[in-house]
Amino acid sequence: MAQEFETVRLEVADGVATLTLARPDRLNSFTVQMHGEVHDALNAVRASTSVRCLVLTGAGRGFCAGQDLNDRAVDPGAVAVDLGESIEHYYKPLVLTLRTLEMPTIAAVNGVAAGAGANIALACDLVFAARSASFIQSFSKIGLVPDCGGTWWLPRLLGPARAMGLALTAEKLGAEQAEQWGLIWKCVDDDALLPTVTALARQLAAGPTRGYVRTRQAIEASATVTLGASLDLERDFQRELGHGADYREGVAAFMAKRTPQFKGH
Description:
Layout: E1 8-13, E2 16-21, H1 32-47, E3 53-58, E4 62-64, H2 83-100, E5 105-109, E6 112-114, H3 116-122, E7 126-130, E8 134-136, H4 150-158, H5 160-169, E9 173-174, H6 175-181, E10 186-188, H7 193-205, H8 209-221, H9 227-242, H10 245-256
Parallel strand pairs: 2-3, 3-5, 4-6, 5-7, 6-8, 7-10
Antiparallel strand pairs: 1-2, 8-9
Helix pairs in contact: 1-2, 4-5, 8-9
């Protein structure tokens, strides 16, 4: 895990990996270099045997402003840029990696989360936001559609009316309103953001992480399957988890009125 990066920071403590997007002068917007370093950092997290929870946050006054347009030559008189290639090679793998990590993931949104930055945050299992933070689906301002899963997250979390409104108007949504609408888990005071997230991340890292991941998978699958299929998936997951060491440890700890020592299997 001792890798050196220029555009991100990766720190590990108490079973928690904190990945900080670190281009604060550009509101942590993505470049090709940052994509590569995020990819390498997440691969290191995935390969680690000690990391059991991931925190994603941003340096400075913003979480992530999405794509750095200065890193993508756009000249009205030049050959068109293939934005689909950018999605295919960078953003899609990033979102899918966050959704398939075998550990809980938490976004700590410390400032503006715009465009791809907003939707990358939503790819995490839980999203906390500082009270001064905001979420902006800024794509319509440059003639694009919400990407990084935006057209998938927004209607599921907010309903089609609010999803369409945010997508078409690019209206800024404050953290308190985002919590009230159900877009994020919690809005907290600015100075409480990282302490709150770190405490929860340590708690989750010490918990039954396989069960957490199966919970994510079951909830995500429920969006596209019938009730019967969800019941079947719950049955299959309970069968798997019921044969695991964490279940036995959890029951034993409950009966003995002691703190369980989960191992993630």
